[in-house]
Amino acid sequence: MKKGTKSYSILKLKCPRCQIGNLFYNPGLFVVKDILKMPDNCPHCKQDFKLEPGFYSAALWISYPIVLLIFIPLISLGLVVNSMHSFFKYIFPFIVLFSFMLQIPLMRIARAILLHMTITYRPNGKIE
Ligand SMILES: [Zn+2]
After folding, report:
1. CA-to-CA distance for 8 and 112, rounded, in angstroms?
2. Where is the chain membrane-spanning (predicted)?
């Protein structure tokens, strides 16, 4: 992935404008604490991350289709495997656990996508 592309910036959870500052205090997709704690502004270019009150509730509508895209194939696969062999019932708890663990990166990525839909990338973070 190249710097300057939206996919790079979204997956690295970087500021949409400068792609240098982190969106979250605790960077990374898989974290256990401060999951949704974000600074008010980008630490690098000062881009406002709190665009309006309740801005991030829209992130739910972004994560929802992603969840469907991931889980419908997984559930279908599970049903097929289950009908072939009873082994599935032993791995089922791990799949549930895995699904819960996926919530954290999903919530973070949904917020990053929402910000990237709103703010355009400017190299060096310059304001027009
Ligand atoms: Zn920035």
Report:
1. 11
2. 58-81, 87-107
| Whole-number Å distance between alpha carbons of 6 and 79 | 35
Question: Number of folded domains in the chain?
Answer: 1
How far apart CA 16 and CA 120 sit, in angstroms, is 6
For the entire predicted model, the pTM comes to 0.81
- For residue 1, tell me if it sits in a domain: no
pLDDT, tens only, 51-74: 999 999 999 899 999 889 988 888
User: Which pair of structure tokens corresponds to residue 29?
Assistant: 């997709």
Ligand 1 center–CA 11 separation, angstroms = 15
Token look-up 């990166």 returns 105
Query: What is the distance in A from the centroid of ligand 1 to the CA of 23?
Result: 8
